[in-house]
Amino acid sequence: MKQFLFRISIFSVLLLLVTNCASTKNKQQKTVVKTEANVISEDSTPYIKKERKNFFPVTDAENRWVDSIYNQMTFDEKVGQLFMVAAYSNKDTLHTNAIKKLVRDYKIGGLIFFQGGPKRQARLTNQYQSLAKIPLFIGIDAEWGMSMRLDSTFRYPFNMTLGAIRDLKLVEKVGEAMGKESKRMGVHFNFAPVLDINTNPKNPIIGYRSFGENKVNVTEHAIALLKGVQGQGIFSTGKHFPGHGDTSTDSHSTLPVVNASLAHLENVELYPYKRMFDEGLVSVMVAHLNVPSLEPRPGYPTSISQPVVTGLLKKELNFDGLIFTDALNMKGASNFKKPGDIDLEAFLAGNDILLFAENVPLAVEKLCVAYQDSLFTEDRLAESVKKILRYKFKAGLHRYKPVEEINLFHDVNPKSNLALQYELYENAVTVVKNDGEILPIKNVNQKIAYVKLGDDNHSTFLNTLKKYTEVIEIADTNVDSLLVKLTDYETVIIGYHKSDKSWWKSPELSVAELQLIDAVAEQKKVIIDCFAKPYSLSRILNFTDIEGVVVSYQNGDVAQEVSAELLFGAIGAKGLLPVSINSFYKAGDGVTTRQLNRLGFSVPERVGMDSDKLSQIDQIAQKAIDGKMAPGMQIVVARKGKVIYQKAFGYHTYDNATKVKNTDLYDVASLTKVVATLPNLMQLYDHHKVSLDTKLDEMLPEFKGSNKQHITFKELLSHYGRMQAWIPFYKATLDSAKMPIDKFYKKVYTEGFTKRVSDSLFIRDDYHNIIMKQIIDSPLLDKKEYKYSDFTFIILKHYLEKVTRKSLDKLTYDNFYSTLGMNYTLYNPLTKVDKKNIVPSEIDTYFRHDTIQGYVHDMEAAMEGGVAGHAGIFSNAMDMAKMMQLFLQKGTYGGLQYFSPETFDTFNTCHFCEEGNRRGLGYDKPQINGSGPTCGCVSKSSFGHTGFTGTMAWADPETEIVYVFLSNRTYPDSNLPNKLSKENIREDIQKIIQEAVTEK
Predict the structure, then answer these.
(1) SS3 222
(2) Which residues are registered as beta bridge partners of 755?
(3) How do 642-650 and 600-601 pair as beta strands?
(4) CA distance 712 to 691
(5) Containing H/E element for 813?
(6) CA-CA distance, 509 to 356, in Å (whole number)?
(7) Residue 544: how many CB atoms within 10 A of its CB?
(8) What is the pLDDT of residues 82-100, one digit of tens each?
C-alpha cells in the first residue's frame, strides 16, 4: 500500500496541468458524501495474508484450448470478447433482434440478463448461444437469487438479513443453492456477493445489499456465500470495488464521492477484497465512485481510473482474475464520457469486461482507432481476451450444451429452497431488547392486542400469532381513540411492515407512527417487531418504555411466520444485528431467548418429509368429499414440533354454502376422552391421588357392593372391566312417537331444568344421577376381554368432579386449555362462538328433532348439559395438535410441566397386550393383529384416539409425528353406513404421512 501511496502522489503532480486544462464539458457536479463513519467504531482487525485458494486450477487442456482459439481470432473478434451486453427476456423482437445482431456481427463475449422470466431467458440464451462463434458468457445480478431480476424464481433473504446469522454454514448453503440455480439456467457469473461495508445508514443503494457495517462480519458472510456459489462451478463477482458502503448517493444517478482516507480504505473497505482474493474469488466489479484519495483527477470515476483498476487492484492487491466495470450506462459513468469513449477509457484503465455498453459498434470503432494509435498493445488485448477465454473454458463453454427447457421451473425452484428459507429466518430474526423477559410470551391467558404500522401486508404474522392464543387487531388513526380501545389489553404487539419490493428505499417511521409508539408504550407492555431494515427504528429516540424489540428484517410470509413463532417461544432468538440502530443498539447486539417447546410452523422438507408425497392427502380428502363420506374436514400434520401441513377441505354441509376454515370448530366426539378427561386423570395420578390398583369403590363409594366395585383404575382405563359398550339412555326419555317427555324436558330454561340439550330443550338437572344408577346396576359381560365402553369416561368424569369439586369444563380449561393457548377448544361452544363458525353434526330426527350445530352430537353427553367425560368437546385440528404435542413431549408444553414423563409412559403402556387388549390407559394403541384404528404402519409406542363423528388424533414418538383429522361424517344422518371408516380414509392418510418421511 505504501508503494501505491507514493505512485498516487507522483501521479497527482504529473496530472496537475492536465486537470487544469481539462475541457469543461467533461466536468460534472460533485455529490459530496457526509460520512457517518464517526458514528460507527472502526474495526482495527488486521488483514493476515494467506496462501490463495484456487477453485478453478489451470490445466494443460485449458492452455491448449485458449491458445488455439485466440490464434484463430481476428482483431475484431478479440475486441468483441470484451463486451457483455444487457439482455432482457421481457422485451419485444426489436430488442431480441438487436442482441442477435451484436452476437452475430460483433462477436460480443457475453450477456448480462435483466428483467424477464426463467423459461423465456433460457429460450433466448439458447438462441443467442446458437449464433455465437465462441460461446457467450451469461451473467446476472442475483444477489438474493435469480428473483432479483426474474419472475417465477426463488427469493433468498437479502444480504443484510443473512448478515444477522451466526451459523456461516447456512450462508454457504444459500450460495450452494444459488450456484445450482445459476448452473441450471446456463448462467456463468453471479454478480455477487456485495462486499460493501454499509457504514453509512443513509446509503440509498447498498443498504439491504450489504451484509452489515462490520468489515469482519461482512467478509465472513461473503466468504461463506462464495464457497457455496463457486463450489457449484459458478463464478462469483465481488462488488463494488473499492467500496460503495460509505456513500449517500446512488451511482445509478450520479457520481458519489467517498472522502475516506487511504488508511481508512485499506483498513476497512479493502479488507473483504484482500480476504476474498485469498479464498479464491475469481472476479471483481469496479464501481463508479469519486475517491479523491485514490484518483486525484477531480470527478474521475474509479471504474475508468488506471490508478484504481491497474495500480491498486491488479498490482498492489495482486488480483489476477476477471475485472468487470459496473454497468456503463449508469450516470456515475455515462455523465462523465459518452458511449464509446467511456468504454475505451474503461479498457485502458485495466478492466477486462465492459459491462452494459450502450453502443457496441461505436465502442468497437473507438477501440480499433485507439489500437491503431498505439494507445494499447496486442499484449494488453491478449491479457484480457485470453483471461476471458480461460474462464470460458473453466465454465465448460469449450463443450457448450444448450439449456434444457424441460422441468426448468421445477428445477430452479426446488422444494429444499423453502426449507432453507425457514432455517435462515429462524437463525436471523434478532431480539435486541427483552426487558423483564417479556419474550417469549409465556402467559397465553392474557389479553394481547396487535397494532399494525407501515403500509405492507401483515396477515401471515397476525394469523400465526392467533395460532398461539387470542390476539386481537386494534386499529385507529387517532392515538387517543386507540388508547381507549387498548384499555383492557395487557400486552401490545406493534408490527412495522414495509414491502421487500422496495428494497432500495429507506423506510422510516412517520411522525404519527412515532407518536403512536410513544403513547402506547407509556401505558402498556409493548413488543415492537420491525419487518424492515434495522435502520427503520433509528427515529425512535427513546426505547425506555418499550419492553421488547425484535428485528425481523423483511416482510415476506416466512419472516412473518417465523417471527410470530419466536414471540411465543416455538423457537429461540439467535440473530445478531448486522448494523447499528443509532447509539442504542450496536452491530453485533442480540439477545438469545428461551425456546418453550410450543408447536412451530414450517415446510415438510425442514423436518425430513416430502411435500410432494404429503400433497397426496389432498386427493384422498377430495375422494372422501366426492364420495359423500363427509361434507368437509380439517387435517393437520406436525413433525419434530413443526406443523408442516394444515388444510381445510370441503364445506360445512353438502349444499356447499359455507366453506370449512381452519379455525372452524368440529364436534370431536370421543377425542374428548383424551383431550379433556384423560389429562386431568394423569395429573391426579401424578399427584398420587390415585394408583393403577385403586378400585372403583375406593374412587366412588356409590359403587361399593356393586358388580363393578373391584374394577381397578388400570382396568377401567384399559376398557378391560367387562362393562357394556353403552346404553341408549335418551330412549327412556322419549314417548312412543320418539318425542321428549315433559317429565324430563322443558322447552325453556326453568328451575330444575337448566341443562341445555338443544336450542329449545332443557333436561332435568338430576338426570345425571339416573344415568349413574343405570351404569352401577348394569350387568357385566360374561367374558373378561377388551370391550370399548363409554361407561368408563362417564364414570371418570363423575369421579373427577367429586374429587376436584369443579365441573369438568372448568377443570379442563383451568388446568390445560387456558395455558396451552387452546382458545378454540371448549364444551358448549355457542356460549362463546358464533354458530356460523361451528360445523353441524347431524340433522337429528330421533331425539332432539333439530339440526345439531354447536350442541354435542352424543346423546348421553347432551343429557349431561353438553359436558361429559367421553364426548362434548368442540375444537379445530390445530388446537387438537397442541394437546397431542403435549403428550408427545411427555407432559411439557410452553415451558410448563403438566405431568411427569413417568406418568405419560405409564399411561401410554399397553398393560394387557398379552391378553389381546391393545389399549393403553385411556389412549388407543395400534392394532395387535388384524384391523384397528391405524394404518398398521405406525410404531407400537404410538397412541391416540378416534371419534364417532369422523375424527382421529394420533401421535408417534418414534417418528415424532402428530396427525389430526376432523370431519362431520355424521352429517346429515349418523345412521347411514360409515363410509369414511369403510373406505379407510383416515388410515390411508396416515399411511401417506408415514411414507412421506425421508429422514429419521
Answers:
(1) helix
(2) 763
(3) parallel
(4) 9
(5) none
(6) 37
(7) 11
(8) 999 999 999 999 999 999 9
Which ranges constitute the DSSP H helices of 749-790? Answer: 767-777
The answer to whether residues 37 and 199 touch, using CB atoms and an 8 Å cutoff, is yes
**Which residue in the block uniquely carries the three cell numbers 442475483?**
142
Residue 171 has a pLDDT of 98
Cell of 38: 464517526
At 375, the amino acid letter reads: L
Helix (H, G, I), strand (E, B) or coil at 401: coil
The per-residue pLDDT for 16 is 37
Element (H, E) at 216: helix 215-230
Q: Is 524 left (phi over 0), alpha (psi -120 to 50) or beta?
A: beta
How many CB atoms sit inside 10 A of residue 997's CB? 18
Q: Which strand (E) or helix (H) includes residue 432?
A: strand 430-434
Using CA atoms, how far apart are residues 517 and 509, in angstroms rounded to an integer?
A: 10
Q: What tens digit of pLDDT does each residue of 701-734 get?
A: 999 999 999 999 999 999 999 999 999 999 999 9
Instruction: Report how far residue 112's alpha carbon sits from residue 86's, in angstroms, rounded to the nearest whole number.
Output: 5
Q: Cα–Cα distance between 710 and 704 in angstroms, integer?
A: 9
* Alpha-carbon span 840 to 831, nearest angstrom: 16
Mean pLDDT, 10 residues at a time, over the chain (1000 residues)? 49 39 33 34 82 93 98 98 98 98 98 98 98 98 96 97 98 98 98 96 91 97 98 97 92 91 96 97 97 94 97 97 96 89 98 97 97 97 98 98 97 97 98 98 97 97 98 97 98 96 78 97 98 95 96 98 98 98 95 97 98 98 98 98 98 97 98 98 98 98 97 98 96 96 96 96 97 97 95 98 98 98 98 98 97 98 98 98 98 98 98 96 95 95 98 98 98 97 98 96
Matching residue, cell 397386550: 913
916 Cβ contact partners less than 8 Å away, ≥ 6 residues apart: 785, 786, 928
CA-CA distance, 207 to 776, in Å (whole number)?
Answer: 76
The strand pair at 761-763 and 745-746 is best described as: antiparallel
CA nearest 714: which of 880, 856, 942, 912? 912
Integer CA distances (angstroms), 68 to 130, 190, 271, 638, 986, in order: 21, 28, 38, 60, 68
Handedness of CA 194, 200, 205, 211 (dihedral sign): positive
Residue type, 542: N
Cell numbers found for residue 575: 440473530
**Exposure letters 483-494 (e unless 16+ CB within 10 A, then b):** beebeebebbbb
Phi and psi at residue 86, to the nearest 5°:
-75, 130
Burial tier of 588 (Cβ tally within 10 Å: 0-12, 13-18, 19+): middle
Q: Which amino acid is at 134?
A: I
Whole-angstrom CA distances from 507 to 133, 197, 208, 497, 708 are 48, 20, 11, 10, 72
Torsion-angle region of residue 473: left (phi > 0), alpha (psi -120 to 50) or beta? beta
The H or E element that residue 72 is part of is helix 60-72
Tell me the C-alpha distance between 242 and 245, whole Å: 10
Instruction: Note the helical H segments in 700-832.
Output: 713-717, 767-777, 791-804, 808-812, 818-820
Q: How does strand 471-473 pair with strand 448-454? A: parallel
Joined together, the cell numbers standing for residue 930 give: 388384524
List C-alpha distances in Å: 435 to 440, 525, 575, 583, 987.
11, 10, 17, 18, 48
Q: How many CB atoms lie within 10 A of CB 41?
A: 12
pTM: 0.93
Q: Which residue has the cell 447456512?
A: 170
Q: In angstroms, rounded to a whole number, what is the distance separating the alpha carbons of residues 287 and 331?
A: 12
Per-residue model confidence (pLDDT) at position 42: 66
Task: Identify each DSSP E strand in 435-470 by its residue range.
Answer: 448-454
**Phi and psi angles of residue 694, each rounded to the nearest 5 degrees, phi first:** -60, 130
Q: How far is CA 656 from CA 67, 289, 630, 659, 851, in A?
A: 73, 64, 12, 7, 16
Cell of 826: 371448549
